[in-house]
Write a structure and sequence with these properties.
7 strands; about 15% strand; alpha/beta; about 50% helix; single chain
Length: about 300
C-alpha cells in the first residue's frame, strides 16, 4: 500500500462524468489484493482485487457512494473519473465498496476515498524498489515475532529499504498531542481544585475566629452543635453553590468546544457534571465539618471586661 491509515491520505477530486463539474474532494490510496484482509476491512458490496483484476478497477467506500447518491450495490460497475480531462485512460470502474473506516485517526473523520489497484501504479516486479508499505498481520506483537519478521526481510536483496514499524505504536504517536492535552487539562483542573480547597480552609479559619463570640453566645442560648453547623453550612453555601454552578457550566462549555475537534464523540451526559458537582460540594462539607468541629463542640467561654 502507498499510505497507512495513520497520517491521512493524499487527495484527488471527483468529477461528474458527464458535465465535467467537480463534485467534491476525496482521498485515495493504492493497495493490492491482500490489503483489506490484512487491515481487517470489510466489503459491503462487490469484490476485492485479485491477481487477474484489471488495473483500472477501483474500490470506493460507503461515504463516496452516499455523496454520489448511490447505494453500494448501485455503484458497482460504474465508471468514475478523477480528472477534468475525461480522456478514456482517466476513467476507472468501481469493482467493490468498502465499509467506512477512519481516514483521520485522531479526529475519527471518515472521508470519501478511492482505493486504486497497485497493479496500475507499480508492476509486481518493481514493488520492492518503490515507496510502498508492506503490511503484515501478526497473531501477537512480541519481540520474538518482530525479530522473526526482520530476519525474513533480510533474506531479500532489498532488505536495506525496509524499516519495521508497529501500527499500534504509530497510532499512539499520532494521538500523543490529544493525550498531552488530556493530561494537561487534568493537571490544571487538579491544581485549581487544590488551590480552591486550600483557600477554603483559610477562609473557614478566619471565619471561625471572627464569629467565635457569636457562636459562643448562640450555644449559651441553647443552640446545639447541629444548629451551629447548619448555620455555618448555610453561610458557606452562599459562596460554594454559585462557584460550583459556574465551574460546572464552564467545564461543560470547554469540553463541548474540545469535542468539536472530533467526529466520534462521547455524550456529555448531565449526570456526569451533576456527579462532579455533588462530589465537590460533599468535599466542601467534609472540610467545613473538620475545620469547625472543635469550635462547635467546645464549651462556650465568652470573655467579659
Amino acid at each position: 500500500t502507498a499510505h497507512l491509515p495513520v497520517w491521512g491520505y493524499s487527495g484527488q477530486p471527483c468529477y461528474d462524468e458527464t458535465t465535467r463539474e467537480m463534485l467534491f474532494g476525496c482521498r485515495f490510496n493504492i493497495i493490492d489484493e491482500n490489503y483489506l484482509a490484512t487491515m481487517g476491512m470489510r466489503l459491503v458490496a462487490g469484490d476485492n482485487f485479485t491477481l487477474q483484476s484489471s488495473p483500472r478497477d477501483v474500490l470506493v467506500n460507503e461515504t463516496y457512494c452516499r455523496l454520489r447518491g448511490w447505494r453500494p450495490e448501485e455503484a458497482l460497475g460504474r465508471r468514475i473519473c478523477s480528472f477534468s480531462d475525461q480522456a478514456p485512460e482517466n476513467f476507472y470502474t468501481i469493482r467493490g465498496v468498502v465499509q467506512d473506516f477512519r481516514t483521520q485517526v485522531a479526529s475519527g473523520l471518515v472521508e470519501p476515498i478511492v482505493l486504486h489497484n497497485l497493479n496500475e501504479w507499480m508492476p509486481r516486479e518493481d514493488r520492492a524498489y518503490g515507496y510502498t508499505n508492506l503490511c503484515l498481520r501478526l497473531r501477537e506483537i512480541t519481540p520474538e515475532a518482530l525479530e522473526a519478521v526482520s530476519e525474513k526481510l533480510h533474506t531479500f536483496e532489498t532488505s536495506d529499504n525496509y524499516r519495521i514499524r508497529v501500527l499500534d505504536t504509530l497510532i499512539d504517536e499520532k494521538l500523543r498531542t490529544e493525550r498531552q492535552v488530556h493530561d494537561l487539562a487534568l493537571l490544571i483542573g487538579s491544581i485549581v481544585l487544590l488551590i480552591s480547597l486550600v483557600g477554603l480552609v483559610g477562609y473557614l479559619g478566619d471565619e471561625m475566629r471572627r464569629r467565635s463570640r457569636e457562636i459562643a453566645i448562640r450555644k449559651v442560648n441553647g443552640a446545639s452543635a447541629t444548629d451551629i453547623f447548619a448555620l455555618l453550612t448555610r453561610d458557606a453555601a452562599v459562596l460554594t453553590l454559585p462557584a460550583v454552578a459556574a465551574g460546572t457550566l464552564a467545564g461543560y462549555l470547554v469540553l463541548s468546544r474540545i469535542l468539536e475537534l472530533f467526529v466520534e464523540r462521547i455524550a456529555l451526559r448531565w449526570w456526569i457534571f451533576a456527579g462532579v458537582a455533588v462530589a465537590v460540594i460533599g468535599l466542601v462539607l467534609v472540610i467545613l465539618l473538620i475545620r469547625t468541629w472543635r469550635v462547635i463542640t467546645e464549651n462556650p467561654r465568652i470573655k467579659t471586661e
